[in-house]
Amino acid sequence: MAALAKLGAFVTQISGKIGGSQFASSPSGTYIKNIGTRSKFVTGSQAKKLTKFANTVGLWRELSNANKTAWNEASVNFPYVNRIGETKTYSGYNLFVKFNGSLKAVNEPIFLTSPAPYSFDPISETGVSITPTSFFLTFSETDPNCLYIIKMFVFQSRGSFNTSKKTIQIGFVPPSSLDGLTNLISLVNDTFGSVTTNQAVIVEVDAVYTGSGQRLNNVMRRRRLVT
Questions:
Q1: Which of 49, 62, 179, 180 could serve as a FRET partner for 139 with CA atoms 20 to 30 Å apart?
Q2: Which range of residues forms the domain containing residue 27?
Q3: Are the CB atoms for 173 and 202 separated by under 8 Å?
Q4: Cα dist. 49→53, 97, 167 in Å?
Q5: Mind listing the pLDDT tens digit for each residue in 35-65?
Q6: CATH of the domain at 149
């Protein structure tokens, strides 16, 4: 994984290799990446993601120049803040891959035309509960035009609460399943096998607007012990 670097008053630009690291610049900022040998082992889930990514990239290559230009022009409407706090804009290509990647994550058709910004309805969560046989998410407000990606990390050490752990997608649901009454434990079991009492979990939920793939990250982020 490449790390971003924020340059100071004395060093304003850097590129090239130093030891096992390579320094370069991109629209996101200056970044550092390890140039050591990577493992060739790829898990099944990683292979699926790589296939979806390759398919999306292939579709971009088939777009007309006019459509590519429209995506490039639309990118200014979707600024983001990178990992070191700088406000950046995507390229048209990156925006296309990002939005359509989100649509693929919820099994929605992809969009070849450039998107307009979408204003999400209020989304409010009120709680999450998880036991070895049940998993409930409760939202008091949801956007009906969205599907909701559920992500989770399960700690193997009981009681551990290291929040730096990266969650993975375990499934997605419609707004009606966030009523606090729909048991979603099958999503947990299908991904992790099972959870046990006193195991710690991190739960995150993202909202994806099905009209374009615009994504609202972490409308819920909670840490819980399995009870």
A1: 49
A2: 3-34
A3: no
A4: 6, 12, 15
A5: 555 445 445 555 555 556 567 888 899 999 9
A6: 2.60.40
